[in-house]
Amino acid sequence: MSSAVRNRSEDRAGLRDTSNKENHREKEHLRSHPSSFRDNGGTFLSGLKSSSTRAAGMIRDGLFGKAQRTGTSPEKEVVVDDEHYVLKVINLPLVEQTRKTRISKRLEDSRDKTEFWMPAFPWRAIDYLNYKGCDVEGLYRVPGSGPQIKKWQRKFDEEYDVDLFAQDDLYDINIIGSMLKAWLRELPDELFPKEAQDRISRECAGAETVPQLLIDELANLSPFNYYLLFAITCHLSLLLAHSDKNKMDFRNLCICFQPCMKIDVFCFKFLVCDWRECWKGCKNESKYIEEEYLRLNQAPPRGLAEARKPAKEEAPVVDDQAASASDVSLAPVPDDASTLQENKKDSPPAGANGRSPAGPPPQLTINSERAGSSDGNGMRPLSPIMPLSPLKF
């Protein structure tokens, strides 16, 4: 068609009329006969889009682990590993920790008093290290495995008491050594009050033998502090006696334990090097025993119900319970205590630098049938009479 013909107005009008008629017919047709392409094609495209979205989500979740929980899925238990476990028990104050974890719940059922007055962890650790660690070179200087330390700390924290001798997966003694040092370092309590240490150092300066003032200050401690310090220094004294093998001489013991125990070098020297002479009895023990049994709603041990008369104020043994620093017998005072009193009268008065009255060293009587392994005399290494020969430094 030529441009002249296309530009004619009548032709353009005719074309518009024809186009309008065709559009009208198409709309009428669509209304009467729905298009399968319109319906099915739209559904197809919509389904394709939905499928592609779901596929992309599955790939993303599968590859990168970002799957989200649905509202109906159950909550999974949160697992805390040893590294992030927060201690709840073995970092408590000494008295509270002892009451929760003590090995023996009654003093008369104990193999020794420390089972009643000490928390389970330091008792088990010291007992284990006394048996297995005295001849180990590098003990306390070689750190244990960090993850293993966390593992055993959690075990004690959750179970309260763990018999270390019965464990098959405890392969390194340095784990227990590191745990004991960490436990002492984190203990909220003072083992030996700083004021008492300062007074001893000031008034007994230059002393070459165990000052009576040190013995008296130790006797004034609560039994919780008394027997814990008693057991720790017993362990250190035993290590010092075997220093030719373990290389833990006095200097190394000071480096490892003075900061943990917060005890000055003057008192630390007597507690470790002259350990036997420091412990003559805890004069407050009877009162604390009654308090503990009242808390447990139990009758006190036999022999404590009767009133007891304290000995003379100047005597190192204040009451019959303290006649022996660690005698588990609750029977009346043996004759040795009266002998000590007589020796006290006959001997010259002990000054600030004087030695305590002569007498047998404190002994920790143990029921050998309950104690298991022993040295042949029914004594465990936790006992102060181990080694049996006198210690010389």
Write up this protein.
Residues 105-300 form the Rho-GAP domain. This is Related to GTPase-activating protein beta-chimerin. Residues 7-31, 305-315 have a biased composition (Basic and acidic residues). One of its GO terms (molecular function) is GTPase activator activity. By secondary structure, the protein is mainly α. The chain has 17 helices and no strands. It folds into two domains: 18-64; 94-371, Phosphatidylinositol 3-kinase, Chain A (Orthogonal Bundle). The protein has helices at residues 3-6, 9-32, 36-64, 94-101, 114-117, 120-132, 146-159, 173-186, 194-203, 212-219, 223-241, 243-246, 250-261, 265-273, 285-295, 335-346, 368-371.
Keywords:
0% strand; 2 domains; mainly alpha; Phosphatidylinositol 3-kinase, Chain A; elongated
- Overall helicity: 40-55%
Q: How much is the average pLDDT?
A: 72
CATH superfamily of the largest domain: Rho GTPase activation protein
Assess the beta-strand content as a share of residues.
Answer: under 5%
